[in-house]
Amino acid sequence: MAVAAGTRLGPYEISGLIGAGGMGEVWRARDARLGREVAIKLLPASLCSDSQRLHRFEQEAKAAAALNHPNILAVYDLGTQDGVPFIVSELLEGETLREKLRSESLPLRKAVEYAIQIARGLGAAHDKGIVHRDLKPENIFITNDGRVKILDFGLAKLIHPGANGNGQGLIPTVVSEPGAMLGTVGYMSPEQARGREADHRSDIFALGAVLYEMVSGKPAFHRETAADTLSAILKEDPPELAASNSRVSPALDRVVRHCLEKNSNERFQSARDIAFDLELLSDSSTSISLPTAPPPSHRRRWMAASAALLLLVSSCAVAFLLGHRNTSPRAPVFHRLTFRRGSIRAARFAPDGQTVVYGAAWDGTPVQLFTTRYDSSDSRSMGLQSGQILSISSNNELAILLHPETFEPFRQRGNLAQVSLAGGGPRELLENIECADWTPDGGLAIVRRADDASTSSLNLLELPPGKVIYRPRAWISHLRVSRNGQFLAFADHVLGGDDGEVIIVDRSGKVQTSSQRYSSVQGVAWSADGREVWFTAAPIGTERALYAMSLSGKTRLVLRVPSTLTVHDISGDGRVLLGKDDIRIGLAARAPGEKAERDLSWFDWSLLGDLSKDGKTVIFSETGEAVGSKYGIYMRNTDGSPAVRLGEGAFAALSPDGKWVVTNDLRSPSQLQLLPTGVGEPRVLTHDNIEHLFPAWYPDGKHILFVGLEAGHGRRSYIYDVAAGTTRALTPEGTIGSILAPDGSKMLTTTNGRSYSIAALDGGATPIPVKAISADDQPVQWDTDNRHLFVANREIPMTLFRLAPDTGQRQLWKQITGLDPAGLESMPCGRLGADGSYAYSYYRVLSELYVVEGLK
Question: What would the pLDDT profile of 95-152 be if each residue is shown by its tens digit?
Fold first, then answer.
């Protein structure tokens, strides 16, 4: 079949040739249905009669389509036209690793960063039983924003039929003739070179060869002929990395050589282990770069003396190791305390160091308090329904949060109460508390919701209660008082997320030190000796690790595992109460005319931004582990078809005509930008010093409403004129409005999230207070009649009411329980569309609690 610009393959119109290789030609094309640019790979006509090539080509598509990972090329479609099969995939902008290696010398930091991403992609493929078998620089693509994409699963093979859990193989196995070699000379493993069966460890060997080349600038095994290269793979080790790059540390060299072991049983057994080890290297400021050795002496006698001294030191070292074998550091020991399915928000050691009190919501039931012992797997309910542990004093008094209400992701508030660990009823102390901790003298430090309308803070740190000592940039979590009572540590977050820093202040609120900025900070505790603050955070993404920060601000890594960690408490003898959390923000929707919901989650942090009026399209953001710091805006149809990435951003709204999405970019302060849903180019709208958050379109499609924050001022709403390019304030400081009526005549405003009013958008009338919206209501949107509001309760399940603001009359509209109630903590946002359609995001945490011994 002749292919040229303008040729149509089903809904795809060819626009130009990108490149060609042994397994096919790659063309640029446009998907007329979704209005997006794609890449199409066609098998050459000369090979279409080759059944094995056809089979392998189909295998490439099915293998890649079975994978959903940011470091693997996304496959959208598979088809055939005029007897020629083709694969449709995402269109990448950038260059292959081979092209990058030809054009520049990679910095060591970049080589390690790329290797981590490659290892993550391979790990995802291996988890599904898929082996690449032809990993090389030509099959690794580096996008313009630094994202690694693994290409060409044409030689992939399913090594574990039934790996998808239902007894069905994801793809058929290719059976090669005995002795046949599949792969590329120079990067194939010894077992591939011998024509033997290859498994995931063959990919690990290839990754080692690629990493060696990125670091040294030279292929690991290249020789003059293919036969000599194969012989080197089978019999020789590559030259020392330090010979070509003196900055290579012994630790990095060990990782590379562990990948390149000739015997597959002696290599890394998991690509995820490689990523883990490389991440540890990248976390250390001293592990990547080491000073070069001093020049050797020119005098023979100095060399002889040095050799004698080296022999003496070596002998002493051997004797020392033999004599102290039993004193070498032990690996941490984990004691699992909980085994039910649900979420744990907080846990604390009692003063005896043996008893543990934790609050958990198991199997979809409301949160309640439990006690257990660190050496036990049995838990006992304390009989306090709807309570959350905050702190335990030295005389066994519990500070608890009664009836905690999740009003935002990561955040709860309720009434502070005191109750004895020995039993009895709770005594309520304070309202609107988010966190608290006992001081050694029996006092309380608290974080309370702010009442001051002039401040941009959402909560305030008080010590004692009533005396404000610290105002955060937005909100505080995980307040902990030091063991001697002189300092307080906590996480200081940004608006709308758990990004932030760990701060240490003295009792007057003066900042002593702070950590770097993290994309997620959850969990703070003082070390046993009181010299450090231990906390769990993620530099990018959401997989938090355990760090320690001294009073001088020096930070070190304590523990990283391939999971999300939360430190809850540390006992006086150094045992750590640690949570392992599977955290997700998911997305679900019911399409127009359908009776059942469909889960539309894409990666791990799918936060709903908008739902089209017809209920057929959702706009959402991804800001979790899968995308790292490259927060993205996505579009997906509610029928379950694949999502389309529109660009970078965090909050998003769809224009009335469906052609544009307005979002805030990732600069600081963030600016408004437009992303096309079809034809068009992204463009930044604003260039000012305002932080632009939560944008929403006016019904006319010509104006944008957003919540703005200027330094030194309180939050307020602004209106942006798209045509004129002008911004003006719409509400007084402390008052925001973001829910517009469909006819554009009015909007719902709130002051500090407590009192609501209806304000006319022409500014001519005084806002009308709405007392029918209670503190337990979460406004969702106006009804199409411009008279009624939809509001939801803030609990699980989500109950939606149709409310008349003027009369207060409310009518039950729908109750949404969620597809799986276990670990479901909140449904932070929802949207309603036509014909009974709706969409919502849910926040789920599935936790396991451990006591860990041996962490230093």
Answer: 999 999 987 778 888 999 999 999 989 988 888 788 888 899 999 999 988 889 998 7
How far is the C-alpha of 399 from the C-alpha of 730, rounded, in Å?
A: 42
The domain defined by 584-773+822-845 folds into Neuraminidase (2.120.10)
- Alpha-helical (H) ranges within 50-147 are 51-65, 97-103, 108-127
Residue range 329-355, pLDDT digits in tens: 567 899 999 999 999 989 999 999 889
Distance CA 250, CA 237 (A): 16
Other residues' Cβ atoms within 10 Å of the Cβ of residue 651: 24
Beta strand spans in 68-174 (E): 75-81, 84-90, 94-96, 130-131, 140-143, 148-150, 157-158
Buried b / exposed e along 826-842 (16+ C-beta atoms within 10 A): bbbbbbbbeeebbbbbb
Q: Provide the 10 A C-beta neighbour count for residue 711.
A: 9
Q: CA–CA separation, 743 vs 745, rounded Å?
A: 6
What pLDDT is recorded for position 174?
Answer: 36
pTM: 0.56
Pairing of strands 130-131, 94-96: unpaired
CATH 2.60.370.10 fits 338-574, yes or no: no
Q: Which of 94-103, 218-227, 303-312 shows the lowest per-residue confidence on average (mean pLDDT)?
A: 303-312
CB 634 within 8 A of CB 621: yes
- Long-range CB contacts for residues 549-556, cutoff 8 Å, separation at least 24: 549/502, 549/504, 549/513, 549/515, 550/513, 551/487, 551/504, 551/512, 551/513, 552/513, 553/513, 553/514, 553/515, 555/515, 555/516
E strands along 672-753, which residues? 672-676, 683-684, 691-697, 703-709, 716-721, 726-729, 735-740, 746-751
Q: C-alpha distances in angstroms, 433 versus 401, 449, 502, 619, 753? A: 8, 6, 20, 34, 15
Measured distance CA(657)–CA(641) in Å, rounded: 21
CB–CB of 849/338 below 8 Å?
A: yes
- Residues β-bridged to residue 373: 355
Residue 430 CB neighbour total at 10 angstroms: 16
List where CATH 1.10.510.10 sits in the chain.
Answer: 95-172+181-289
CA angle, corner 388, sides to 446 and 486, nearest 5?
Answer: 30
**411-420 and 397-408 as β-strands: parallel, antiparallel, unpaired?**
antiparallel
Q: Is the pLDDT of residue 211 over 90?
A: yes
pLDDT at 762: 77
HSE toward the beta carbon, residue 741, CA cutoff 13 A? 18
270's tokens: 């998991």
CATH class assigned to 1-91: alpha beta
Residues of CATH 2.120.10.30 domain(s) within the chain? 338-574, 584-773+822-845
CA distance 85 to 57: 8
Domain 95-172+181-289 CATH class label:
mainly alpha
**Dist CA 793 CA 771 (whole Å):** 16
Is the pLDDT score of 508 beyond 90?
Answer: yes
CB atoms < 10 A from the CB of 96, how many?
A: 19
Does residue 629 surpass a pLDDT of 80? no
Please list the residue range(s) of the chain that carry CATH number 3.30.200.20.
1-91
